[in-house]
Write a sequence for this structure.
């Protein structure tokens, strides 16, 4: 004792509990190792603090990434971007263009992407892989097949789950709308889709995959005037790629069979 004052033992457990009390649960997990390095002189006090803050930031970012990934509603068996091979196509997109899209400059500029072409050429795979890349970089992403998206739009006013999903879609930085053109929609549904596209126009981005060429969209939407209005907003800041080639599923039945 000194000056009649009793020293208090400050344990690692107590420090961790205090840190967790302030919400620093990620940095508390590395405290013991970082503190030992600081006490034996391997790191300076400033390096010690910086390491704690970096550990906390990494942990929070990873939690946010996992939440965003779950909230995107991707289908199972998502492929990595590096697994998409443009050389399998006859034409439509090059390796250089894929690398450029992966830089996400179009997303920062609220641009859109349209992947058109027959089934089985990797349009959805590439779209989803770009969506995963966007999540890794901190963007909010939502994925919906067109048929599912139309169902959400139809039920949003009467179904709580659909309404909640629509709110998340509208908050997203990127909406991936998959398989446009596989199922025709009526004029009312086309109108709701137009409203959604208009709400997102120059505020967020769209990736659209479709088996229809652009001039064929009118027969899917059921209204040429409305289709023109929808396309006007989608294509204004869009990069369009028309895939041509033989279906991956037919070329590689051992993989997809």
């Amino acid at each position: 004792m000194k000056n009649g004052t009793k020293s208090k033992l400050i344990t690692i457990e107590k420090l961790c509990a205090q840190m967790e009390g302030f919400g620093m649960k990620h940095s508390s997990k590395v405290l013991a190792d970082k503190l030992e390095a600081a006490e034996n002189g391997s790191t300076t006090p400033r390096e010690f603090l910086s390491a704690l803050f970096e550990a906390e930031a990494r942990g929070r970012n990873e939690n946010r990434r996992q939440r965003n990934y779950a909230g995107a509603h991707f289908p199972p068996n998502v492929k990595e971007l590096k697994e998409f091979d443009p050389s399998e196509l006859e034409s439509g997109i090059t390796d250089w263009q894929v690398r450029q899209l992966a830089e996400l400059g179009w997303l920062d500029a609220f641009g859109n992407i349209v992947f058109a072409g027959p089934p089985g050429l990797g349009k959805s795979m590439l779209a989803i892989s770009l969506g995963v890349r966007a999540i890794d970089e901190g963007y909010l992403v939502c994925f919906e097949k067109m048929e599912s998206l139309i169902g959400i739009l139809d039920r949003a006013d009467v179904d709580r789950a659909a309404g909640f999903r629509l709110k998340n879609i509208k908050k997203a930085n990127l909406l991936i709308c998959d398989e446009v053109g596989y199922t025709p929609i009526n004029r009312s549904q086309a109108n709701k889709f137009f409203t959604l596209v208009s709400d997102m126009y120059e505020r967020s981005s769209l990736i659209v995959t479709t088996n229809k060429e652009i001039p064929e969209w009118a027969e899917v939407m059921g209204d040429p005037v409305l289709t023109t209005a929808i396309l006007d907003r989608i294509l204004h800041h869009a990069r369009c790629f028309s895939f041509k080639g033989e279906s991956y599923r037919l070329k590689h039945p051992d993989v997809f069979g």
Summary: Residues 76 and 128 are 11 Å apart (CA to CA). The chain has two domains: 12-71, 73-256.
